[in-house]
């Protein structure tokens, strides 16, 4: 860990409509590269990894990875529980790969499925079928390239010395070494790169364009009309001041 959240942020239990939800989702998020098969006797198999990331915010250090986890306990459920405890401690939601669904079922069985993010809107193509499945697919070429680009952008803006002479705050050497060796055409053994990129994707937001009214070609009628009131004997009411509101045709 490179940052400890304040006491009033830690281990906070928050519910919404009877479901547990992450209370600090506006401050940070996480990414998880999970696995479903328990460790084999020969120790082969990739590790599970998780990164916790602080988004841009006004309360805590921004644009910064604050925790790193990379291990393969003998049972997958131990890994799931470790990740759940980390998410609950920080109060952050997590983005997972949905081709390894064991961790999703575990969170659901514990009542913490509200801590798992759906597929981000900016990673949903116009042709994708709407689904309630948590996480994002790892075999989508669009996701793979967007994932790699998010890490590239983060390195350019927040790692090392930038154009202003400021030093970035990336304190996890194992992740940096994983980034150096990463190959987009063979991602299997780069667990830390996968989880870090998922955290960055979860932190991305898309600014919605405001819809502006287009009144071109429309006719408006507006004006003040003085009308003589027929048969009126009151000089003060001989004329009625009528204000007609704009009417669109």
* Average residue-wise pLDDT: 84
Low-confidence stretches: 220-227, 235-249
Profile the largest sheet.
4 strands, mixed
Helix count? 5
CATH overall fold name: Nucleotidyltransferase, domain 5
What is the helical fraction, as a range of percent?
A: 25-40%
Strand order of the largest sheet: 5-4-3-6
* Amino-to-carboxy terminus distance: 63 Å
- The best one-word shape is globular
Could you tell me the strand content as a percent range? Answer: 15-25%
Under the CATH scheme, the architecture is 2-Layer Sandwich
| Strand runs, count | 8
| Rg (CA only) | 28 Å
Coarse structural class: alpha+beta
Structure, described:
The chain has 249 residues and is of the alpha+beta class. The protein has one domain: Nucleotidyltransferase, domain 5 (2-Layer Sandwich), CATH 3.30.420.240. It is 26% helix and 20% strand. The chain has helices at 76-90, 102-110, 141-158, 173-181, 191-203; strands at residues 14-16, 19-21, 28-33, 48-54, 64-71, 94-96, 220-228, 239-248. It has a four-stranded mixed beta sheet. A two-stranded antiparallel sheet has the order 1-2. The radius of gyration is 28 Å and the shape is globular.
Summarize the structure.
The protein is α+β, with helices and mostly antiparallel strands and about 250 residues long.
Features:
single chain, 249 residues, alpha+beta, Nucleotidyltransferase, domain 5, two-stranded antiparallel ribbon, 5 helices, 8 strands
List the helices and strands and how they pair.
Elements: E1 14-16, E2 19-21, E3 28-33, E4 48-54, E5 64-71, H1 76-90, E6 94-96, H2 102-110, H3 141-158, H4 173-181, H5 191-203, E7 220-228, E8 239-248
Parallel strand pairs: 3-6
Antiparallel strand pairs: 1-2, 3-4, 4-5, 7-8
Helix pairs in contact: 1-2, 3-5, 4-5
């Amino acid at each position: 860990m490179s940052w400890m959240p304040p006491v009033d942020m830690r281990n906070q239990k928050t519910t919404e409509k009877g479901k547990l939800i992450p209370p600090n989702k506006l401050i940070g998020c996480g990414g998880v590269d999970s696995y479903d098969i328990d460790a084999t006797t020969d120790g082969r198999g990739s590790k599970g990894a998780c990164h916790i990331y602080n988004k841009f915010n006004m309360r805590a250090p921004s644009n910064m990875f604050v925790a790193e986890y990379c291990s393969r306990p003998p049972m997958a459920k131990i890994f799931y529980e470790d990740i759940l405890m980390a998410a609950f401690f920080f109060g952050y939601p997590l983005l997972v790969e949905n081709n390894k669904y064991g961790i999703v079922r575990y969170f659901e069985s514990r009542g913490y499925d509200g801590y798992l993010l759906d597929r981000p809107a900016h990673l949903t193509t116009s042709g994708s079928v709407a689904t309630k499945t948590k996480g994002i697919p790892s075999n989508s070429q669009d996701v793979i390239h967007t994932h790699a680009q998010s890490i590239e952008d983060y390195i350019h803006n927040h790692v090392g010395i930038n154009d202003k002479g400021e030093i970035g705050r990336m304190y996890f050497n194992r992740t940096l070494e994983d980034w150096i060796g990463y190959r987009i055409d063979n991602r299997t053994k780069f667990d830390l790169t996968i989880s870090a990129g998922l955290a960055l994707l979860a932190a991305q937001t898309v600014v919605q364009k405001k819809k502006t009214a287009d009144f071109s070609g429309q006719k408006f009628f507006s004006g003040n009309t003085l009308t003589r009131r027929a048969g009126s004997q009151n000089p003060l009411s001989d004329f009625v001041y009528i204000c007609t509101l704009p009417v669109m045709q």
